[in-house]
From TrEMBL:
Keywords: Allosteric enzyme, Carbohydrate metabolism, Glycosyltransferase, Pyridoxal phosphate, Transferase
Organism: Vitis rotundifolia
Primary role: Allosteric enzyme that catalyzes the rate-limiting step in glycogen catabolism, the phosphorolytic cleavage of glycogen to produce glucose-1-phosphate, and plays a central role in maintaining cellular and organismal glucose homeostasis.
GO biological process: glycogen catabolic process
Protein name: Alpha-1,4 glucan phosphorylase
Reaction(s) this enzyme catalyzes, per UniProt: [(1->4)-alpha-D-glucosyl](n) + phosphate = [(1->4)-alpha-D-glucosyl](n-1) + alpha-D-glucose 1-phosphate
In-chain residues carrying the UniProt-annotated modification N6-(pyridoxal phosphate)lysine: K621
Entry-linked InterPro entries: Glycg_phsphrylas, Glyco_trans_35, Pyridoxal_P_attach_site
EC number of the protein: 2.4.1.1
Lineage: Eukaryota, Viridiplantae, Streptophyta, Embryophyta, Tracheophyta
The UniProt record lists the keyword Glycosyltransferase: yes
UniProt GO MF annotations: glycogen phosphorylase activity; pyridoxal phosphate binding
């Protein structure tokens, strides 16, 4: 989770807060990666730091690699928040970030005999040198209990009597901007037992209860992404949500009250951005604080709430929207459930006046979902309470309007916008690919592109220059050498630098279609095995690299990982194939590994079934580094096509509007013979584990092929063949690579943050005085 506080206006005495949460997907990234490299570059002291270390007998590069990744985040969304924090600091927006200080990360992925095993990520074992513990900054966070009605100044009011209280203790981490004096702060909350009750237990000799209370409190910030298949797991996740929201809002409101005493000024100073639905309880918490603690009237409090909240959703499918069981919410946060019911009643009454007694539509739009398990629809709550709702790519926004939130769009079309996600070039070129950074600066004649990435378009002028081609290929070769050395050290497999390094690294999920990639690798292997030796000389050698984590309870994803290893075992040890084809699985993929893999990749695959990827930021990182994309027209890829042209990437597969019809087609018309053959090879045990992979095969054949692997297989093979043909012509490939980097400026998080600042938050930069 992360919450950003940004100053609105031109003075640093005014605070705006942007609330965001990036949790609950399966691929664990350290939210910011290593801090040392990024910090010394942003501060402009990288060379001085290296010189000083050299005088002490140390190498800067060796020292930097000793730092572990901060296990604060989860998946591309987590890394997105880190990019946005970097951009907020660099663009001089006075900002605070908030998050949870997890004792353990999501999990450390260990591969044993090709199977994923999860181990705790002990990222804090040796401490965190970047943080400052603020023991004097702590807030009580309450759970459980009852709600009673009392009379105050002649008015009836609700009083929450909690059954459990824990303390949120602050830990601060600085985030410096690039080329600016601005440094913003990431404040992380750790859960501790309430000191009063802890001491009472010790004083009365109840040591066991004191220990139990401490463990129960600290569990809240103990593990990132607790398994929610059990009631206890669901409750712990909800506790984490509210713990984060409550502590952060108490800090924000405290800062506001330090300089203001009239909550009518709150919307002028505060903007809260709900990034997906996990922090949506912030809406209810602000209402509770304003009504129950600040004693504002309901209408006044509601007017404030509707002015300060905006909502970003990353969801594509309606069935994936978050819901919280009423029984669970009522037990853990009884007062909040009451407020949600009141919000929903008022909304339903207003809606009846707008659309009449259309009970089907009223039921769909209600915040409360009736059914076997009565639940709260957190997305509906967020939309009702927000002044702006945005998707994270243009295609995603259209899906929100026409599919996911169609009824709400028809009711409030003015609320809906889109903000295409972006990544920071400071991390993904300057830090991870310093050779390319130096080359770009040399040919553009300036380093100004590091802050103004639109200047990268200037590379188009030199895209056909032979001298740039030679230097560009040398940079890419050095990066491939680094990656090849890592692969050999990690897996023992020696790979050829002449091969195309073909990469797919992202969390393992059926819609991201790692299985499609693996089945095409089997097809390539099968073709090579059935070739005459003289024909094999025409084959473009490939090193196929796959990386990512499967959620602990996601059995299909775990079987895909096992299949990848089983196929790799067969291919990598086949003397007939040799260097023509290798398959490598990168274990425990994280930011630091990405900084090695992305600069060394020739081809990057982003092959989700069209209409299932909200945005996708991985493709942007590869694009910036001059890697060519093999992709479906999904998420932000559609906008990448507009920037660099179809001729500079390899597109395939069904379009969004074609997917529903393809799912309705007869199973006999879906899959080509090549697809049926490779699936049969897996089913017949060609790679071992015949029974184990049976369900994988069943899931992609006939009418079970929901993600259209069979339908897209022929088109996918054509795109792969086009990539082979282009790779043979190295001059063409290099020109496409240069044009990819040149066209990546639109996908910087600097542009995303400026867009939010201008059209959603209403804030301006605040330059720190020298």
């Amino acid at each position: 989770m992360i919450l950003n506080s940004i100053s609105r206006g031109k003075t640093q005495s005014v605070y705006t807060s942007c609330l965001s949460s990036f949790l609950w997907h399966s691929l664990a990234f350290g939210i910011s990666g290593r801090s040392l490299s990024n910090s010394v570059i942003n501060l402009g002291i990288r060379d001085q730091c290296a010189d000083a270390l050299s005088q002490l007998g140390f190498e800067y590069e060796v020292l930097a690699e000793q730092e572990g990744d901060a296990a604060l985040g989860n998946g591309g969304l987590a890394r997105l928040s880190a990019c946005q924090m970097d951009s907020l600091a660099t663009l001089d927006y006075p900002a605070w970030g908030y998050g949870l200080r997890y004792q353990y990360g999501l999990f450390r992925q260990v591969i044993l005999d090709g199977f994923q095993h999860e181990q705790p990520d002990y990222w804090l074992n040796f401490g965190n040198p970047w943080e400052i513990e603020r023991v004097h900054v702590s807030y009580p966070v309450k759970f459980y209990g009852t709600v009673e009605e009392e009379t105050l100044n002649g008015k009836s009011c609700q009083v929450w009597l909690p059954g459990e209280t824990v303390e949120a203790v602050a830990y601060d981490n600085p985030i410096p901007g690039y080329g600016t004096r601005n440094t913003i702060n990431l404040r992380l909350w750790a859960a501790k037992p309430d000191g009063q009750y802890d001491m009472e237990s010790y004083n009365t000799g109840d040591y066991i209860n004191a220990v139990v209370n401490r463990q129960r409190a600290e569990t809240i910030s103990s593990v990132l992404y607790p398994d929610d298949r059990s009631h206890q797991g669901k409750e712990l996740r909800l506790k984490q949500h509210y713990f984060f929201v409550s502590a952060s809002l108490q800090d924000i409101i405290r800062r506001f009250k330090d300089g203001h005493n009239n909550f009518d000024d709150f919307p002028e100073k505060i903007a809260l951005q709900l990034n997906d639905t996990h922090p949506s309880l912030a809406v209810v918490e602000v209402m509770r604080v304003l009504v129950d603690e600040e004693h504002l009237g309901w209408d006044q409090a509601w007017n404030i709430v509707c002015k300060i909240f905006s909502f970003t959703t990353h969801t594509v499918l309606p069935e994936a929207l978050e819901k919280i069981p009423v029984d669970l919410l009522g037990s853990l946060l009884p007062r909040h459930l009451q407020i949600i019911y009141d919000i929903n009643f008022n909304f339903m009454e207003e809606l009846k006046k707008r659309i009449g007694l259309d009970f089907n539509r009223l039921s769909q739009m209600s915040i409360v979902e009736e059914g076997a398990v009565k639940s709260i629809r957190m997305a509906n709550l967020s939309i009702v309470c927000s002044h702006t709702v945005n998707g994270v790519s243009r295609m995603h926004s259209e899906l929100l309007k026409t599919r996911v939130f169609k009824d709400f769009y028809e009711l409030w079309p003015h609320k809906f916008q889109y903000k295409t996600n972006g990544v920071t070039q400071r991390r993904w070129i300057v830090v991870s690919n310093p050779s390319l950074c130096a080359l770009i600066s040399k040919w553009l004649g300036t380093e100004a592109w590091i802050r103004d990435i639109d200047l990268l378009i200037g590379l188009q002028e030199f895209a056909a220059d032979a001298d740039l081609h030679q230097e560009w290929k040398m940079v890419r070769k050095v990066n491939k050498m680094r990656l090849a050395e890592y692969i050999e050290a990690m897996s023992g497999v020696k790979v050829s630098l002449d091969a195309m390094f073909d990469v797919q690294i992202k969390r393992i999920h059926e819609y991201k279609r790692q299985l499609l990639n693996i089945l095409s690798i089997i097809h390539r292997y099968d073709c090579i095995k059935n070739m005459e030796k003289t024909q094999r000389r025409k084959v473009v050698p490939r090193v196929c690299i796959v990386g990512g984590k499967a959620a602990p309870g996601y059995e299909v994803a775990k079987k895909i990982i096992k299949l990848c290893h089983a196929v790799a075992e067969k291919i990598n040890n086949d003397a007939d194939v040799g260097d023509l084809l290798k398959l490598i699985f990168v274990p425990d993929y994280n930011v630091s590994v990405a900084e090695l893999v992305i600069p060394g990749a020739d081809l990057s695959q982003h092959i989700s079934t069209a209409g299932h990827e909200a945005s996708g930021t991985g493709c942007m990182k590869f694009l910036m580094n001059g890697c060519l994309l093999l992709a479906t027209a999904d998420g932000s890829t559609v906008e990448i096509i507009e920037e660099i042209g179809e001729e500079n990437m390899f597109l395939f597969g069904a379009k969004v509007h074609e997917v529903p019809a393809l799912r309705e087609k007869s199973s006999d018309d879906k899959a080509p013979l090549q697809f049926s053959r490779v699936v049969r090879m897996v089913r017949d045990g060609h790679f071992g584990f015949k029974d184990y992979f049976k369900s994988l095969c069943d899931g992609v054949e006939g009418d079970s092929d929901f993600y259209l692997l069979g339908s897209d297989f022929a088109s996918y093979l054509e795109a792969q063949a086009a990539a082979d043909k282009a790779f043979v012509d190295q001059e063409k490939w290099t020109q496409m690579s240069i044009l990819s980097t040149a066209g990546s400026g639109r996908f910087s998080s600097d542009r995303t943050v400026e867009d939010y600042a201008e059209t959603t938050w209403g804030i301006e930069p605040c330059t720190c005085p020298s």
